[in-house]
Each structure stands twice: as structure tokens, then as C-alpha cells.
UniProtKB/TrEMBL annotation:
<dbReference type="InterPro" id="IPR029058">
    <property type="entry name" value="AB_hydrolase_fold"/>
</dbReference>
<dbReference type="InterPro" id="IPR013094">
    <property type="entry name" value="AB_hydrolase_3"/>
</dbReference>
<comment type="similarity">
    <text>Belongs to the 'GDXG' lipolytic enzyme family.</text>
</comment>
<dbReference type="InterPro" id="IPR050466">
    <property type="entry name" value="Carboxylest/Gibb_receptor"/>
</dbReference>
<feature type="domain" description="Alpha/beta hydrolase fold-3">
    <location>
        <begin position="131"/>
        <end position="352"/>
    </location>
</feature>
<dbReference type="Pfam" id="PF07859">
    <property type="entry name" value="Abhydrolase_3"/>
</dbReference>
<dbReference type="GO" id="GO:0016787">
    <property type="term" value="F:hydrolase activity"/>
</dbReference>
<protein>
    <recommendedName>
        <fullName>Alpha/beta hydrolase fold-3 domain-containing protein</fullName>
    </recommendedName>
</protein>
Length: 374
């Protein structure tokens, strides 16, 4: 007999919820960002395979994982956050145009492209830095079409005068890890099919400078950025990636990395269980899975496939010490590139998205933009 199961841990408690994968605000409200109309906000549909075939005949909940998902007896999965979307627009908004292009027909996955309006006036032969972005959301929530990511990348593209490609990937629990990593690598290969100017997407052919390619991502997307840069190095991706921006990366492990890392056993267990129960339930290593425990994995960082890396950490973030340990390991690995660390001691996880009007957000944006344009 099926019965309702509620997790013994709760990420909805204020002390943990507000410090770990907090739900993003519904708009990125800086004075220069897009004003997102409520009528333009949509919700991502539940995958067909998870919809109730019998008109939702059962509303019984069999498991609940706040603030991420709720699982029903009939197989439905309800996402509790990160489901709102905004459409792309070829009509420049805030001087940036955008459009969606399918890169994986097999999995019905798209990228959202962002192009600065002034790029149409580029002299022949002049091209733009290419930023490939991986969104956060604990491998479970959010998408390139979420208001916060659409607006954040609009601001980045306007400030950096670059072409950005925001990548959609399959998410847990419908598609557990490593699906997200397979998809993001597939997206990179699709993007690189344009490097000789003969790919299927005109914006990339016409405007992308493949000698100035940057990977970037926050939280789960920061973790993905690392793994993609590593794979690019191992597979000798050409042209070589110029730089990688790893923002507040979701990196964890069963044990703290140092005496300043999170010591509370309940918090450590709660974070681990998100990975073990939702993100990668097939992992035999749990929170020490090499996808998650990047710092203490046996991975050889010396093959990182880019020239420079910017690691951003925040002092109130659960992943603060893991991020610093990651940067330290990269510096000691024998890798021949340069490592920059941007640390904001008084800020929390992804504060630049969650509190874009905060005192440190403009400084954060400037450092990000300078890294991509420098």
C-alpha cells in the first residue's frame, strides 16, 4: 500500500532554505533591465511521460522534497519553483535581441541566444566574444527561459557587447545526472559546428568569435562549467576555450574541506540527500560522487581546457569553502592557466541574482564583464 512519505530533512526551514538553492525572485529588477509583463510569463509544462493519463485521478503525494519537487501517486512531478518563463524577442529589449533555437531534436532542447542590437553595425570581419551559459537550480529547477536568467544575460550581453548562448538541459528527477552533462556537452558541440561559419544558426555564424569563447554558470551551472571545461581539455576541443567563469559552484562532499566549512551534520545530510534522492539516485558514492565532490575527486585538473578561470564565492554561501578549495586545487594542479578568485564575504549564494540592487552586485557584474572582455 502506498503511503505519503515526507523527507526527514527539510530544505524549507528558514535557516537552510535561505542559504541553499533559494528560490529566485520573479524578475531581475535593476534600472536598466527588461520590465517583464505578467502576461508574458508562462510556466514550463510537465513532461508528457509524467502527466496523469487518467485526468489526475489521484492527488495523493508519495514523496515531497521542498523547495524543489512534489511526487504524486499517479506519477506526476510538480516543481515547486523555477517554472515561470518569458518569451524571446527579436525586437531588441534593453538593446538586446533574443531567440530560441533547437539544438537537440532528440530531447527537444533549445538554446536561447542573446545579441546586442549594436552588433548589426559591426564592420565586416569584426566579431563578438561568445559566452556559453549554464543556468543554476540544483539540476532540478529553472531554465534559460526563466525571467531571472533571461534578464541577467540581457544585462551581461549589453554590458559586455558579446553574443550569449544560454543552454537548456534535461533536469532531475525525470532525467538524473549525468543527463545534464551529456546535454551541455552536446550543446557545446552544436555551437562549435559553427566555428567555420557554416553552422545552422546565422547569428553564431555571423557574430561569434571562436577565439574568444567563454563558459559560465552559477550554482549547479558553475559545477557544470567546470566539468565542461575539463571535457574540452580532455577531448582537445578546438579552438580552445578562452576562459571559464565558475559562480558560487555547487560542490559538496560527505566531509568538510576545512575547519571553516559547514560542520552541522543535519545541513550536510540535507544537502547530500538532495543529490542522492533527486539529482543522482543511481550514484554509488552519494555526496562523494565525482560529479558533485569535485574538490576531493581524483580528477586531474591539469587538463583544464581553457586559458583562464574566474571563481566567484560568497562568505555566507553554503558552498563558500568548497569554492575556495576548488580554486586552490586548480592553482596547485599544474594547469598552465591563470586563476582569479572573487570573494564577497558578506554575501550569500547567487546574491547577484537574488539581490541585484545590493551594494556589491554592480561590482560583481563589472568583474564578470571585464573577465569576458579582457
Amino acid at each position: 500500500m502506498l503511503r505519503r512519505i515526507t523527507c526527514s530533512y527539510s530544505l524549507a526551514s528558514p535557516s537552510l532554505f535561505h542559504r541553499f538553492f533559494r528560490q529566485f525572485p520573479r524578475s531581475y529588477s535593476t534600472p536598466t533591465t527588461i520590465a517583464v509583463s505578467r502576461r508574458n510569463i508562462r510556466r514550463l509544462p510537465t513532461p508528457t511521460t509524467l502527466r496523469c493519463i487518467c485526468s489526475h485521478s489521484s492527488s495523493e503525494i508519495i514523496s515531497e522534497h521542498p523547495p524543489f519537487i512534489r511526487v504524486y501517486k499517479d506519477g506526476r512531478i510538480e516543481r515547486l519553483s523555477g517554472t515561470e518563463t518569458v518569451p524571446a524577442s527579436l525586437n531588441p529589449q534593453n538593446d538586446v535581441a533574443s531567440k530560441d533555437v533547437v539544438y537537440s531534436p532528440e530531447h527537444n532542447l533549445s538554446v536561447r541566444l542573446f545579441l546586442p542590437h549594436k552588433s548589426t553595425k559591426l564592420a565586416a570581419g569584426n566579431k563578438l566574444p561568445l559566452l556559453i551559459y549554464f543556468h543554476g537550480g540544483a539540476w532540478i529547477n529553472e531554465s534559460p527561459f526563466s525571467p531571472i536568467y533571461h534578464n541577467f544575460l540581457t544585462e551581461v550581453v549589453k554590458s559586455a557587447n558579446c553574443l550569449a548562448v544560454s543552454v537548456q538541459y534535461r533536469r532531475a528527477p525525470e532525467d538524473p545526472v549525468p543527463a545534464a552533462y551529456e546535454d551541455t556537452w552536446s550543446a557545446i558541440q552544436w555551437i562549435y559546428s559553427h566555428s567555420d561559419g557554416s553552422g545552422p544558426e546565422d547569428w553564431i555564424n555571423k557574430y561569434a568569435d571562436f577565439n574568444r569563447v567563454f563558459l559560465a554558470g552559477d550554482s549547479a551551472g558553475g559545477n557544470i562549467s567546470h566539468h565542461m571545461a575539463m571535457r574540452a581539455g580532455n577531448e582537445k576541443l578546438k579552438p580552445r576555450i578562452k576562459g571559464t567563469v565558475i559562480l558560487h559552484p555547487a560542490i559538496w562532499g560527505k566531509d568538510p574541506v576545512d575547519e571553516h566549512d559547514v560542520q552541522d551534520k543535519d545541513i550536510r545530510s540535507g544537502v547530500a540527500q538532495v543529490w542522492e534522492k533527486i539529482v543522482n539516485p543511481n550514484s554509488v558514492d552519494g555526496a562523494d560522487d565525482p560529479w558533485f565532490n569535485v574538490v576531493r575527486s581524483g580528477s586531474d585538473f591539469s587538463e583544464m581546457g581553457c586559458e583562464k578561470v574566474l571563481v566567484a564565492v560568497a562568505g555566507k554561501d553554503l558552498f563558500w569553502r568548497q569554492g575556495l578549495a576548488y580554486a586552490a586545487k586548480l592553482k596547485k594542479s599544474g594547469w598552465q592557466g591563470t586563476v582569479e578568485v572573487m570573494e564577497e564575504e558578506g554575501e550569500d549564494h547567487c546574491f547577484h541574482l537574488l539581490s541585484p540592487n545590493s551594494e556589491n552586485a554592480p561590482k560583481f557584474m563589472k568583474r564578470f564583464v571585464d573577465f569576458v572582455t579582457g
